[in-house]
Equilibrative nucleotide transporter 1
Amino acid sequence: MVICLVCYNIADRLPVIRYYKDLKAQALSEEENEKGSLSGAYWRSTLWDIFGRIKWLGFGIVLIYIVTLSIFPGYITEDVHSMVLKD
């Protein structure tokens, strides 16, 4: 973890990373000037648009999680005997 933190701080100082961070900051400031700040109603509509795009992906992940939790404990506690391993 320490190596990752050190590498992240080193990468942050690279010229290419600085260039793209500045480019992103410039694009964000231009977009804010163009649209203004995000008001409450606009923010909620944007949030609902994002939720509408990812709802089926989230449903799939939840379904996989539920199926895994329903199968895994039974599989682990199953009484399996092996003549080769003598258990």
Notes: Helices lie at 2-12, 15-35, 40-77. The chain has a mean pLDDT of 83. The CA atoms of residues 5 and 11 lie 10 Å apart. The longest helix spans residues 40-77.
